[in-house]
Specification:
Length: 307
């Protein structure tokens, strides 16, 4: 019994020392998490603060009189007089119209870019044609070009085509593919055993059938990863939609929030309404991460094992 007690004591001591060594890492992790989430929390705090009380009620982590009136204002559920009484500037925000535009803009680019980048990545990984490697190197070299450098040429082209304030003008520069996405998927296609494709070829399948029925089902993780990252990036895009589609019918949510902030020239900015709109705009992306985030983690783990 004494030896067993000693072994149990030694095991407990080792576990205690192990936990003690991990304590600094946990503290750093909690601090990093708190710093990362604090801006999001402050956005929510401002959104539930009554407008007239915002200048004086900004010291605590919670407002003294929390309210949901700012969300109702943004969603258009209250009248203009009630908006002004709640401390708003009276500016209009057609939230559901801009939400629809953002969904269309994000959905078109995400679906098309995922499909076309998968085709290009498979072609660079498996198909043999003259100049393939040189073309791929030039294509990947485009990663070195900052997106701001292509902004004005793309705008001039869209304007000449008469696509300003249209969905085709919004999605044109990013609809087909991006260098990073092609490079990302090509690396996964290179990791697929050739025996699988050769077996399908022996059974009479051509390159097109092999790509759709054999290769794509084996790369669901990378495809979900690309789709999720593309959707988040496109949803948060601000400068290009503001430049190309400032019209009411094609204005996306991010651009609309910026315009909403400037619609109070004679008063102070409507910070509570802006934060309420920003909080609502985060919800679709948050739902995507919640439902598909696990696939993203699995894909990263898979790529780590392959490396």
């Amino acid at each position: 019994m004494s030896e067993r007690s000693e072994r149990i004591g030694e095991h407990s001591a080792r576990v205690g020392r192990r936990r003690l060594r991990r304590l600094p890492a946990w503290i750093c992790l909690i601090l990093a998490l708190g710093i990362s989430l604090f801006p999001l929390w402050w956005m929510l705090r401002t959104a539930i603060t009554p407008g007239p009380e915002l200048p004086s009620d900004n010291a605590g982590l919670l407002p003294r009189h929390p309210t949901l009136i700012n969300f109702a204002r943004v969603l258009g559920l209250v009248s203009r007089d009630e908006t002004r009484a709640a401390g708003g500037s009276g500016a209009n925000l057609s939230f559901f119209l801009y939400l629809r535009n953002s969904v269309v803009y994000t959905g078109l680019i995400t679906c098309a870019q995922t499909i076309f980048c998968a085709m290009a990545g498979y072609a660079f990984a498996r198909l043999r044609f003259r100049g393939r490697d040189a073309l791929f190197n030039v294509f990947v070299a485009a990663l070195m070009v900052p997106p701001i450098f292509t902004l004005l040429p793309n705008f001039a082209l869209v304007k000449q085509l008469g696509w300003l304030n249209t969905y085709q003008g919004l999605v044109a520069p990013s609809l087909l593919m991006t260098p990073f996405a092609v490079f990302f998927l090509r690396q996964f296609f290179l990791g697929i055993p050739r025996d699988v494709e050769q077996a399908a070829f022996i059974d009479g399948a051509g390159p097109w059938t092999i790509f759709w029925r054999v290769v794509l089902p084996m790369t669901k993780g990378p495809l979900f990863t690309l789709a999720l990252t593309t959707a988040v990036w496109t949803w948060n895009d601000y400068l290009w939609p503001l430049l190309v589609a400032p019209g009411e019918d094609t204005r996306v949510l991010t651009a609309a929030l910026g315009i909403f902030l400037k619609q109070s020239p004679n008063t102070s900015p409507d910070w509570t309404g802006l934060m309420a709109g920003s909080a609502l705009s985060v919800v679709p992306v948050l739902l995507l991460v919640v439902f598909f985030g696990r696939r993203l983690v699995d894909s990263i783990q898979f790529s780590g094992m392959k490396g």
